[in-house]
């Protein structure tokens, strides 16, 4: 592993880098400590909307010139919004880093928000597109089932009624409050010297008028609501279903056991759910498990799409496999295979400058300990079978499981929920 170096500028920005001299590119990201969970209901979706507007006019560049610059560089430029952070990221030839930083700094810190209406329509179309993709929409539905009225339960894209009516003044004010230097991390990985990176970021910072500020401090989730079932009626060929429960925070030491639990349950082609539901019975094309970790909580769950005749049977298999893992009934070589799977994915991912940049930026913006790949592999190797089964029995206990579904008939859905959480089935007939 190459050396990771961290600096803090006088403006409050933190700069972190990892040099990879064998490559000829640099991946760079501006990580901002604001996500959808920081929004009030009246501003639901504003963080994601601002992410879009960063690609429009800035103090020195219009939208076309931003696109043309990165095309000229042969580079890549994109952005993403999550529940806890926003990132503007790119990858360019190492000798074009200065131009990239100049443009990206303007985008992040000095957008003008002069042309919001056209992009407003783009975001409204993105929300509509999600509504037409039930396999994706069901994940927002299950977040609402797990977290209720808490901001973690709201879609990252926000609500159409907010995006339709939010004013430029509100947008600019929210950007000003959240996009402060002290709430920004600049991360880079590739063929770049840390001293040069700091010099370029400092030069760009000195060209703008921005006071420093402390990182955003968000309220922790103190208590999750009881498990619930949420259903959206839609004329689809399949029922798209998620089963999920509150998980663990990203700093929790049990996250290594959670990663292996995910791999065993449904996170790989040899996982239990993939083999039992898809390979042996042919009841689903898409079936997998997932883990999300936040600063103070998380979510763990299963997603699948299947036809009406298979809904109950699929959820019964999900419940059976969870119960077997929770009881410590591992198949021969199952845990060892999960460890090797994790080890291989880590090693392969470390060949990517973008992956290395992401692990640096995400760790620093979320105030999470940055572990070397070797340390992560060692932690995974040290996980005992009992740690995985105990985590499964605690996190995936039937009474903690919420269920969300999208399909034609709610009666079919609710009749099947009892397989994973009998309480939800009883509630559905009350």
Corresponding CATH architecture of the largest domain: 2-Layer Sandwich
* Order of strands across the main sheet: 1-2-6-3-5-4
Radius of gyration from the alpha-carbon trace, in angstroms? 23 Å
Low-confidence stretches: none
Shape, per Cα inertia axes: globular
CATH H level, superfamily name of the largest domain: Metalloenzyme, LuxS/M16 peptidase-like
Helix content range: 40-55%
The CATH topology of the largest domain is given as: Cytochrome Bc1 Complex, Chain A, domain 1
Describe this structure in words.
The protein is an alpha+beta fold and 430 residues long. The protein has two domains: 4-206, Cytochrome Bc1 Complex, Chain A, domain 1, CATH 3.30.830.10; 229-429, 2-Layer Sandwich (Cytochrome Bc1 Complex, Chain A, domain 1), CATH 3.30.830.10. The chain contains 17 helices and eleven strands. It has helices at residues 46-53, 63-73, 97-109, 117-131, 134-147, 160-165, 168-178, 194-206, 255-265, 272-279, 311-326, 334-349, 353-365, 373-381, 385-395, 410-417, 422-429, and strands at residues 4-8, 14-19, 25-32, 76-81, 86-93, 184-190, 229-233, 239-246, 287-293, 298-306, 402-407. The strands form two sheets. It has a six-stranded mixed sheet, sandwiched between helices. It has a five-stranded mixed sheet with strand order 7-11-8-10-9, sandwiched between helices. Strand 9 and strand 10 form a beta hairpin. Helix 3 crosses helix 8 (194-206), helix 9 crosses helix 12 and helix 9 (255-265) packs across helix 15 (385-395). The radius of gyration is 23 Å and the shape is globular. The mean pLDDT is 94.
